Amino acid sequence: MTLKYKSLRNSRLKEKELLSLELTEIKDIADIIFKRINRKIEILEAIENSVDEKIRTLEKLIQKAEAAQSSLSKLDRHGEITLMGRKGMSSREIAEALDVPVGEVDLILNLKGINTGVKTSSEKTRQENFSTQVIFT
Q1: pLDDT value at position 134?
Q2: 66 belongs to a structural domain
Q3: For position 54, what pLDDT does the model report?
Q4: How far out from the chain centre does Cα 38 lie?
Q5: Whose CA is closest to 102, among 110, 111, 91, 113?
Q6: Per the structure, how many domains does the chain have?
């Protein structure tokens, strides 16, 4: 073997060793990067779970708030019916003004003990039937 050939061979061996070292270093760096990426993924998944839980909690709170609002709306309507009845409006007038069934107005007024002084057709029929029974007995 000639000196030139040995030198070339040694040079190539050193290059292989350097490349091997660089490759090992690149693999180590890649492992570190992948570990960091996996950790970030775990953190993001935990954040996602936390956000999902908060969304579920908010949805429940919204449902409760809507139910409470609905109840308040009904109470407001009941208050309006009561006030209008105390002012002497008939059940029919109140029902038309508030766009609610006459039966609902009658029920609320009866529960509050408010007599509007205006008889509904069913009350008139009952009174007529009662009067007829009294006369014939």
Answers
A1: 47
A2: yes
A3: 98
A4: 33
A5: 91
A6: 1
Q: What DSSP character marks residue 113?
A: T
What letter does residue 99 receive in the DSSP assignment? T
45 found inside a domain: yes
Tokens read off for 120: 């509904």
Query: How many beta carbons lie within 10 A of that of residue 119, not counting itself?
Result: 14
Domain assignment of residue 105, yes or no = yes
Whether 125 is covered by a domain: the verdict is: no
Q: State the residue range of the domain holding 43.
A: 7-117
Q: Are 88 and 116 in contact (CB under 8 A)?
A: yes
Alpha-carbon gap, residue 61 to 46, rounded angstroms? 23
CA proximity to 85, closest of 60, 56, 116, 63: 116
Report the distance separating Cα 82 and Cα 113, nearest Å: 10
- CA dist 102 and 105 (Å) reads 5
Which stretches of the chain are DSSP H helices? 3-86, 91-98, 102-112, 121-136
Task: Indicate the pTM of the whole model.
Answer: 0.46
Mean pLDDT by 10 residues, the chain (137 residues): 74 91 97 98 98 97 88 82 91 92 92 72 55 51
The type of residue at 42 is: E
